[in-house]
Amino acid sequence: MYRCEYCEGTVQPLTLKREAFKHRDGFVILEDVTIGVCDTCGNRYYCADISSCGSCCCNWSETLSKN
Ligand SMILES: [Zn+2]
Q1: Measured between alpha carbons, how far is 4 from 42 in angstroms, rounded to an integer?
Q2: Residues lining ligand 1 (ion), CB within 5 A?
Q3: Which tens digits make up the pLDDT trace of 20-44?
């Protein structure tokens, strides 16, 4: 757990069974991936646990927060 970049909230781990992320090259589907979610503002940190995110090598959290 760590402090949210955008507010005073705490980022909590959340394991997703299956999640499709929109990526610049298309959609990427991740299974059983652990991400971080702020318990106050809800901002998601997709690189919270890179070890379970096989192809994560870019700033998804940055990209997605601009949506
Ligand atoms: Zn936050």
Answers
A1: 9
A2: 4, 6-7, 9, 38, 40-41, 43
A3: 877 777 777 778 877 888 999 998 8
